[in-house]
Design goal:
The protein has 302 residues and is of the alpha/beta class. It contains 11 helices and 14 strands. The protein has a 6-stranded mixed beta sheet with strand order 6-7-8-3-9-10, with helices on both faces. A 4-stranded antiparallel beta sheet has the order 2-1-4-5, covered by helices on one side. A 4-stranded antiparallel beta sheet has the order 12-13-11-14. The protein is elongated, with a radius of gyration of 23 Å. The two termini are 28 Å apart. The structure holds adenosine-5'-triphosphate (ATP). Its main location: membrane.
Length: 302
């Protein structure tokens, strides 16, 4: 049995002259959380809508749970828990009525699970959708995506508008989902959020998938801030030629730079060639490492 739940091949979408998505090939495996990261307008929503068969690709294809996303979109909708970026709810229906309606539509129950989810998300199911706040609408839409325990969740910025406590609960729910063998495609523009649950991240920029990397690998490349003070002036050249050293600044008696873990040994040995008065080395947080590699618009393959 195949373990691939999403497979796109050369997936592309243009809106008139706008090339929203270009030649994206990626796969997501069973049991993994794939974080899909990119700034506003990068093409995240377009990708997710293509996977749900809501729009037709200009080129390439998308296979979701073994089904062609466009031709078999009705089946895909039944099988996938999808949260759109702008959830559509029925203003006159309460949360409870939405649950009954959606579970009948999917024909896979989920009503019982929904009560537990509502408790965990602190959501009142008696209120009509039109009276719900933005955050509570988001919670209800998420609950509807999660309640029938689909094999695959495709979530467009699921924690947007939620307070930090509920955000944490949502991430916990996603972790439980994958522990049970489910998979998640989670779009976001925040690494800080995605890194808490994702196994791998894909970085999209201007419609192109510029990197796919495991969180573990990203952590392995985690940058360190290094600073040293010497008793006499040092030359920048001997440090500048060390592989991996970035943002090097040597001014007279002092040095500052950033370097991935893999470059530290050589850097330290070079520093030790001189008479050291003070030395500091601190690991940067992952967000900073991520921005250093992917934040500039440079194309680094992972
Ligand atoms: N229906 C449409 N018609 C024309 N252009 C569109 C349409 N939908 C998206 N676009 C354009 O395609 C590009 C990708 O948009 P998309 O919504 O996929 O980005 P995104 O990464 O989801 O952004 P955000 O984080 O702001 O939601 C943008 O340039 C956007 O303006």
């Amino acid at each position: 049995m195949t373990t691939t739940v999403v497979q796109t091949t050369g997936l592309s979408k243009s809106y008139g002259p706008t090339r929203a998505l270009r030649d994206v090939s990626l796969s997501i495996e069973r049991g993994e959380v794939f974080g899909y990261l990119g700034p506003n307008g990068a093409g995240k929503t377009t990708t997710l809508r293509l996977l749900m068969g809501m729009i037709h690709p200009s080129a390439g294809s998308a296979v979701v749970l073994g089904l062609d996303a466009w031709r078999d979109s009705v089946k895909v909708h039944r099988l996938v828990g999808y949260l759109s970026g702008e959830p559509a709810l029925y203003d006159r229906l309460t949360g409870r009525q939405h649950i009954s309606f959606v579970s009948r539509l999917r024909g896979r129950g989920g009503d019982r699970k929904a009560g537990g989810l509502a408790d965990r998300l602190h959501l009142d199911l008696q209120t009509r959708a039109r009276s719900l706040s933005k955050g509570n609408r988001q919670k209800l839409a998420l609950l509807l995506a999660l309640m029938s325990a689909p094999q695959l969740l495709i979530l467009d910025e699921p924690t947007s508008g939620l307070d930090p406590i509920v955000q944490k609960e949502v991430l916990a729910l996603l972790a439980e989902h994958t522990a049970g063998g489910g998979s998640v495609l989670l779009s976001s523009h925040l690494l800080a959020e995605v890194q808490q649950v994702a196994d791998r991240i894909g970085v999209i920029r201007s419609g192109e998938l510029i990197a796919v990397e495991s969180l573990e690998a990203l952590r392995g490349r985690s940058l360190h801030h290094v600073s040293a003070l010497f008793s006499s002036a040092v030359a920048a050249a001997s440090f500048a030629r060390l592989p991996g050293v970035r943002d090097l600044q040597v001014t007279d008696h002092s040095l500052t730079c950033s370097a991935p873990q893999s470059a530290l040994d050589a850097l330290l040995k070079q520093v030790a060639q001189h008479d050291v008065v003070d030395f500091r080395c601190a690991e940067a947080d992952l967000e900073e490492t991520f921005l250093a590699y992917y934040g500039t618009g440079d194309h680094h393959a992972g």
